[in-house]
Amino acid sequence: MRFNVIKTIFLKELKETLRDKKVLFMMILLPMFLYPILFIGVSEITAFQKAKLDNKDLKILVSEQVFNSPLIDALKEIENAEIETSEIDIETVDSLKNAIGISIEGNYEESLSANSSAKLKILYDSTKELPVLARKKVKEKLADLNKEILGERLTKIGFDSSFIEPISIESEDIASDEDTLGNILGKIIPSLLIYFLLLGAIYPAIDLTAGEKERKTLQTIYSAPLLIPEIITGKFLLVYAVALASSFANILSMLGTLAFQFFIGEGSSLGFELKLAFSFSNFIWIFILLLLMGSLISAITMTVSLLAKSYKEAQSFVTPLIVVFIIPLVVVNLPGMELDVTTALIPILNVLLAMVSIFKNTVDLQNIFLVVLTTLGYAGLAIFASIKMFSNENVITGEKISYKQILQSDGKKFFGGSEALLFFFVVLLVYLYIGTTLQTKLDLVTGLILSQIGILGGLSLLVALSFKVDFKKFFQFNPFGVKAFFGSVLLAFSMWLPLVIFQEMIPMEYLEEFAKALEPIESLPFFAMVLVIGVLPGVFEELVFRGVIFSGLKNSHGKWTVILISALTFGIMHMSIFRLIPTFLIGIVLGIIVWETKSIILSIMTHTIHNSLLASLEKVGETMSPDYLLIFEENFYFFVFGGLVLVAIGLILVTSENRNLKFQNELK
Amino acid sequence: MPQQILANNLTKYFEDFRAVSSVSFEVNEGEIYGLLGPNGAGKTTTLRMLSGILKPNQGFVKITNFDIQEQKINALKNLGFLTGDTGLYERLNAEEMIRYFGELSEVEPQVLENRINELISTFEISEFRKKLCGKLSTGQKQRVSLARTLIHNPQVIILDEPTTGLDIIASELILKFIQKVKSQGKAIIFSTHNLSEVERLCDRIGIIHKGEMKMQGTLPEILDKTGTESLSNAFLNLVGDETYEI
Question: Mind telling me how many Å the CA of A317 is from chain B's nearest CA?
Fold first, then answer.
């Protein structure tokens, strides 16, 4: 891929998009005017209507028998009330526009003095605003009067009001302003951010795909000297940028409107304190989630729109997508919904819940990391799907394509870098869903064994079989030299030492949780433990990361890209934000071993020894006298630097064999 | 006369339908090759395979010795491709459209500016060079399309019905240009329904029907082999009496 060419495509798409009045209107002008109109306009109109109602006279008809009673005095206190006495029946009340009537059953005064209830009946028309308002005000006044009379009755018999209210309840909201704001914003903003991402992506996604098919410009660009991934990347970046811009424009306009209402002060029904309840790291997390979600949404909308032949057809294809997105937007605000290991795996909803938890300041980094991983997996798959769609001949020639054709392979049986990444995303998602379920529903040990063999082993085998590879060559089951062997052994025993530094950075509560989770494994007999923690991951993780992914990347990339990307996928696969860096570094070492020795056997051995060693240390550590631990802690840096020196020697040994080989080849 | 375009045994299926069947031909430097055939004969499919847009089920294409599928970027840098299906971006102006394709072909900036000005003057685009492509007339659009096709000064040019829908003045401008680039040593494939244009321009002619190459050669060779006196009779002779449009 050539980045200068991608930049040219992106800039051209940007220029065309900015010249499209529809886009400008939808993305910038609409949000700029929508919220001020919506918020200020609606609240002004409501306030105006309310004021209009308040100033109108309320006509209240009362039965003549109470004409001189305190009831009338109470009613007279109602603002703008016009009290009249008359016969109260439905016809009379109905004939007078906007009036309500209060009729009395039995004798009012007598009932009261006999300490029983006087029965009043309010006649009103519930379809008219003024009678409804009058009834509300009358009821409020009568409630006060009721209380007053009750008080008098209680005093007469020597009690006070606490007699009929044995338990008095008062509530006080102790939430800070930040909490309240976070809660309010948390309910609205995540859903809006994602909804506007979608709305923002749809228009350019359709325009740049189905729109181009219709305008016959897709073939023009395909006839230029470009690779398909370059064309897609340029277009994808534009859709992505517009989606993000639209989401930000909407949120800014909304917050701006609220801030404006707050500053103009009284009279605004929605103005509340706009303190930024946000720490910098929260902001970064929201941003990361938004970037990932944006890429997922952009890739999905582009892929779906490409299925269509025309602009109009694409619009009808995208509509169901909007419905799919609305469901999680509703579900997220259901009571009891929160981010946990299960909800972290549900697409769209997980991002929403993660954002809500960030707004509420109840962030669980580990769960948010899971959300990032699943979304990364989906985004990867969606981008791959759109590359596949763009490579489809029918797409290029502007024909409509059937679902059958999408699934059809183009006959090319090449396992390269992009196939390797696709494989990784599939492994990641399958492991997240099935592996995690197995490990929680069954016991941890059985779950681990099944997911290592079944998922990692099974998927690797599936790739090898479906691409009809030569197993020995593909997985690099090659012999190795003595120096490389000793170098690998040295690495296996020493590489954990420098990584202890990262152990220090992990929060205590996470370490405890992790140790607790591993208890079932540590209680196994020694050999069983080595098998579950050492041998199985040693074999199957190596087959996936230094086998399938490594080989795929190697077919289309150079040494360091292969080593770094395979190590990164290896680190991500450990599904813990705290273990990401150490596992990434181990991945680099294992990658160097396989690249230099061309033998996966050595990395399997190194990985197995490393894992077994750590598990044994953990087990031995429990029974060891604290004195030994003290020795380690007191000489911490000695062990770390000593470890680094050993790793360096190990790497030199591992690479020396390859250097000799190259040298000999050059001599030949 | 080095070979610039090689189509070898091209075969293309759409599901079960065989659209093109074992078509082979070559075009040399300074040669104009006319590709003729009734509608639905497989001309467009063949041209799309030549430009790498479609991948043949069998056979291969080489443009200036680069395989169009295996060495796509190098092959396309030497190819200018214009068909009725290669539209213009409506919200770019004429000059931007031409410059965009020059940039995509990675033409050096200074060379690109000179080339843009040269093509703008050749195709008489200057009066509407700042006008958006969506607002151009058919003839103006076609002239911009041609400039877009030729911006990277390709050695091989494929023109599918470049004069369709144009008035006689605009057509003449384009035909004269084709003759001019031929004299510069370019290899050109020219496809049209207008047989007089073929007679006037083409050094060699290939006639495709039902996906097969029925006959190819120079005009006298074709007339000789079919025993006819005009290209239109030869054409009718080869494609039979089926319904077709010319």
Answer: 24
pLDDT above 70 (res A629): no
Residues of A in contact with B47 (CB under 8 A): none
CB contacts of A9 in chain B (<8 Å) are: 104
Q: What single-letter amino acid sits at A287?
A: F
Sorted by where each begins, the domain ranges of chain B are: 1-78+154-246, 89-153
When CB atoms are compared, the residue of A4, A16, A219 closest to B86 is: A219
The CATH code for residues B1-78+154-246 is: 3.40.50.300
Whether ipTM tops 0.85, in short, is: yes
In this structure, chain A runs to a length of: 668
d(CA A613, CA A620): 10
Do the chains contact at B91 and A16, CB–CB below 8 Å? yes
B100 contact residues in A (CB cutoff 8 A): 8, 12
Half-sphere exposure of A348 (CA within 13 A, CB side): 21
Tokens of A535: 């041998």
The secondary structure of residue A129, as a DSSP letter, is H
Say whether B86 and A226 touch across the interface (CB within 8 A).
no
Percent of the residues in chain A that have a pLDDT greater than 90, as a whole number: 24
Helices and strands, counts by H and E, chain B: 9, 10
For residue B108, pLDDT beyond 90: yes
Q: How far apart are CA A451 and CA A436, in angstroms?
A: 9
Domain of A117 in residue numbering reads as 56-159
What's A62's domain CATH number?
A: 3.40.1710.10
**Lowest mean pLDDT, pick from A273-277, A439-443, A603-607:** A273-277
pLDDT at A264: 64
| Tens digit of each residue's pLDDT (9 = 90 or more) over A631-651 | 777 788 888 899 999 999 999
- Indicate whether A38 and A65 sit together in one domain: no
Count how many domains chain A has. Answer: 3
How high is the mean pLDDT of chain A?
A: 83
Closest CA relative to residue B185, chosen from B149, B152, B156, B150: B156
A16 contact residues in B (CB cutoff 8 A): 89, 91-92
